[in-house]
Amino acid sequence: MIRSVKGFNDILPCESRRWRRVEDAARDIFDRFGFSEIRTPVVEKMELFKRSVGAVTDIVEKEMYAFPDRKGESLCLRPEGTASVVRAYIQNNLYHEDPVAKLYYMGPMFRYERPQKGRTRQFYQIGAEVLGVDDPLLDAEILYMLSLLFGRMGIGGIELSINSLGCVLCRPSYRESLISYFKKHHSRLCVDCKRRLELNPLRVLDCKNKDCIEASACAPYMKNNLCENCSEHFSEVKAGLELLNVSYTINPKMVRGLDYYTKTAFEITCSRLGSQNAVAAGGRYDRLVKELGGPDTPGFGFAVGLERTVLLLEEDLSAASKIDVYVIPLGSEASRWSLKMVKELREKNLSAELSYGRRSLKSHMRRADKLNVRYVIIIGEDELRKGTCVLKDMKNSVQQEINSGSAASFISETVDKGNGILKGEVS
Ligand code: HAM
User: Fold this and answer.
1) Any idea what the CATH number is for the domain that residue 367 is in?
2) Best label site of 134, 300, 305, 418, fewest CB within 10 Å?
3) Ligand 1 centroid distance, CA of 11 (Å)
4) Does some domain include residue 283?
């Protein structure tokens, strides 16, 4: 038997309804905030992520699904969505259409990480990016949008932590002070951090190795080394969050695992998730568009991890049925009548399913029960002759014989009114 690849999971029907719920809530909220959907390919050039996420990051150094194509071009499966959206924005001159682009996406991302609860190698993100706005109130507004999304899904107990990562003006001197701090603790750093120290000292702050965490205990904070502009930006973001009633904490150690961030960076976590507790993350990236060859355009965005969000959904949707009417024919002539019946029901915007197979009525009804359908139509030789069918309301187990010619209209009206069948008139 051929099994799926490790870390690449099937999303089975019993789960996909919860996935749809998250996706539908996100689309609805994105619409209300003026976002449009963008769909980018899953395969990109490797260079895109080296130049955006950063060559000296875990994602690019250790986690890429990279491969040469038949002509030797270095390609990869995208590990995240932001770089692809920015590439598409530049390549398609979207900045000519509107100085502000609000784009959202949903789709699979790929990282070669050790699979565990809430961490897979193919995982799905719902992301949103705003290009062309440098106002700190936008950062607050988008964080508010995210809190609204989690609220809409009934997910409580989540925490927003924010930090500022500075800009090209203030980060270089902070970088130097970090390097000199870590040089004093050099012997305690892991092999990776020793190697990365000069190239990307912020990564040491993000390292999960116990010794590196201890070594960074007294490291200087970026938030205490911000230039005036970054400091003001951070204050405005905080003021915006307060204005919108979004609660947050400041985590001065948060640096994020991607290099493109400037100024605001954030994470949303939930302790119910266990060790992989980040359910969404993002921030500002004011230099990325220019660095990837586009005009000087600021950016801000986030990505929500779908698997982790679904784990947090409390409502059990598995029992909810999608089927309004289940049609059970007893005999082959009744089967042909039923085929037309389900067609008619669907034309009336009802969901209907024909119960196939020569089985006993009991066995047909068992499946209707399992599907948790609202109505069942039963038609046999007798009813066919009389021009009727039996309609059973599964909610209250009441059944009655109705005219088979007008059954579809009768059920459709009953469902529209939200009534049980006994309250409707039999035509
Ligand atoms: P990220 O923090 O790498 O940011 O990922 C965002 C979210 O994706 C995480 O918080 C987590 O919920 C989910 N995630 C990441 N890796 C995995 C995995 N292996 N398995 C399951 N879920 C995972 C980004 O990707 C940025 N592009 C976010 C962003 C958008 N920044 C600005 N705009």
Assistant:
1) 3.40.50.800
2) 418
3) 19
4) yes
Instruction: Say if 254 falls within a structural domain.
Output: yes
Predicted confidence band of residue 321 (pLDDT cuts 50, 70, 90): low
pTM given for the model: 0.91
Q: Domain with 162 in it: what CATH number?
A: 3.30.930.10
Q: For residue 268, which atom of ligand 1 is closest to its CA?
A: 10
Angstrom distance (rounded) from CA 21 to CA 424 = 32
Alpha-carbon dihedral sign for residues 407, 412, 415, 417:
negative
pLDDT at residue 424 in the model: 43
Q: Which of 19, 78, 80 has the most ligand 1 atoms within 8 A of CB, as the residue to mutate?
A: 80
Query: Is ligand 1 within 6 A of the CB of residue 307?
Result: yes
In terms of residue numbers, what domain contains 273? 13-170+226-312
pLDDT at 423 (0 to 100): 44
Which tokens hold the place of 1? 């038997």
Confidence of residue 206 (pLDDT cuts 50, 70, 90): confident
